[in-house]
Write a structure and sequence with these properties.
182 residues
Length: 182
């Protein structure tokens, strides 16, 4: 935390290397969070870049309030996603970008993987908004429970409960879906 605080302070002083290090530290987590939320890798790259551009432009306003710097970045990402989805509501979208499927020499395996990803994305749509947020922050953003709690402004116990209920709901949905497809 001390190192992060020092990096943020240096970035606030417009030290390019410090912001570059923050970018390196958080880009992958923010990107995974964004791609999980919108389901399109190309758009997620653009949105993630915009998150860091916004962070760079407003880093001087960041203040330590007992929350990690990552919570601030994830809040910016969340706002970018909301804006993006608002703009997309009038356009037809596909829920899953074909580029999310890893190319494989085994076409059968590639098709099964794509179906599994599509089923998971459909199943997450049945979760509550709070459950989806916990799942995306925990598993796509790879944040620990304590950081998720700070990002969502909830207690760690509430986050654990939301995560547990989301996983139970996903299991039920995916079991039903798999049984129906047999």
């Amino acid at each position: 935390m001390q190192n992060e605080e020092s990096l943020v302070h240096r970035a606030q002083q417009r030290e390019t290397e410090a912001f570059a290090q923050l970018y390196e530290n958080y880009f992958d987590k923010i990107y995974r969070y964004v791609v999980f939320k919108i389901g399109n890798r190309t758009e997620a790259e653009d949105l993630t870049q915009q998150v860091f551009l916004n962070a760079l432009q407003s880093i001087s306003s960041f203040k330590w309030k007992g929350r990690p710097f990552s919570a601030w970045l994830f809040r910016i990402a969340h706002n970018q996603i909301v804006d993006y989805l608002r703009k997309k509501t009038r356009q037809a979208t596909t829920p899953l970008d074909k580029s999310t499927v890893i190319s494989d020499s085994n076409p059968q395996l590639a098709i099964e993987r794509k179906l599994d990803i599509e089923q998971l994305l459909l199943a997450t749509k049945r979760l509550t908004k709070a459950q989806r947020e916990v799942i995306s922050l925990r598993f796509a953003g790879e944040l620990p429970i304590a950081e998720v709690a700070k990002v969502m402004d909830k207690s760690e116990g509430a986050v654990k409960a939301l995560q547990h209920s989301a996983i139970v709901a996903l299991r039920k949905t995916l079991v039903v879906t798999n049984n129906d497809s047999k």
